[in-house]
Amino acid sequence: MHILITNDDGYVATGLQMLKKVLQMHGHHVTFVAPENNCSGQSHSITLGPLRVRRIHVAGADGYVVWGTPADCVRVACSDYLTETFDLLISGINDGFNLGTDTFVSGTVGAAREAAMRRLPSIALSANPGDQWDAIVQTVSRHLPDWIQEAMVSPGELLNINIPTNGGTHWAWSQLSSNPPQQRIDVRENSDTGEWLRFTYEVNPTDESLNTDRSMVNQGVISVTRLPLPGLQQSLKHRLESTKLPRLGAAGLS
After folding, report:
1. Distances (CA, A) of 173 to 79, 82, 112, 194, 225
2. H/E element, 141
3. Mean per-residue pLDDT for 111-125?
4. What CA–CA distance (Å, rounded) separates 86 from 63?
5. Neighbours of 123 (CB within 10 A)
6. pLDDT above 70 (res 112)
7. Going by C-beta distance under 8 Å and a sequence separation of 6 or more, which residues neighbour residue 120?
8. Which of 73, 93, 187, 205 is packed most tightly, with the most Cβ within 10 A?
9. Average pLDDT in the 54-73 region?
């Protein structure tokens, strides 16, 4: 397969480089189109003016650096500027979870959503690796064929995948957590330029249902959530109601 990869942490980020290596190990042709700078929290924003793009070759893969947002990167990749066509997009591996309401502000998810809008099968892949990138890479390599197969089922949706710090024991389908984070503000006064505000967010894990993405990750399970585009929820509901999902046993999927 010819797989397009991008992220919101920037083209030199460890997660993108690790993803590229795993895909190449599985025999896929990889092209990356990624932001020049860190674009975390930019959601599905796009640049209305001209975009600067530079072509580079890194570690056996051709790629493009874009002075824009993650969604811009997908726009460039799917435009006439590139003469290539892609079978799948994977956005990540993001350094940090994208769970619940995080998906509405995540640049990682925004890029995958842009691809899904173009009916390109897409995956948003996130983890909280700490210093355990090796465990994350092993997990991605082990489950990648299953995730690709699931992503190809419906190009109008995206898979949002979150991997626990230790790599997780197995993966399971989850629902998006609707538990809102509690916002706190640290105010730092500056009489010359006004006040600087620093926002922090916390989520109470005891408020979570057992089948939400956040709850599963807290239990050490890899969460996989289908995120349909607006207007496609009914078709997804119909398909889920007519599909017998595998049961989750003590050792994983059965």
Report:
1. 33, 35, 18, 46, 6
2. helix 133-151
3. 97
4. 13
5. 24
6. yes
7. 4, 78, 86, 88, 89, 155
8. 73
9. 91
- Domains of the chain in start order, with CATH, are 2-230 (3.40.1210.10)
Question: Could you give the residue ranges of the DSSP H alpha helices within 152-230?
Answer: 213-218
Question: Tens digits of per-residue pLDDT, 186-227?
Answer: 877 776 778 778 777 666 665 567 789 999 999 999 999 999
Six token digits for residue 95: 């350094």
Q: What is the pTM of this model?
A: 0.85
Give the tokens for residue 193: 């330029």
Are residues 69 and 106 in contact, defined by beta-carbon separation less than 8 angstroms? Answer: no
Q: What is the pLDDT of residues 43-57, one digit of tens each?
A: 898 889 999 999 998
Alpha helices in 176-232 (DSSP H): 213-218
User: Which two structure tokens, joined as six digits, stand for 40?
Assistant: 């975390």
Sign of the alpha-carbon dihedral angle for 77, 118, 106, 213: negative
Note if the bond before 93 is cis, omega within 30 degrees.
yes
Phi and psi angles of residue 173, each rounded to the nearest 5 degrees, phi first: -70, 145
Calpha distance 220→170 (Å, rounded): 8
Q: How far is CA 211 from CA 77, 99, 128, 217, 248, in A?
A: 35, 13, 20, 10, 11
Separation between Cα atoms, residue 62 and residue 165, nearest integer Å:
30
CB-based contacts of 149: which residues, under 8 Å, 6+ apart?
none
Q: Where are the beta strands (DSSP E) in the chain?
A: 2-6, 29-35, 53-58, 61-66, 88-95, 122-127, 157-163, 171-173, 182-188, 196-202, 222-228, 248-249, 252-253
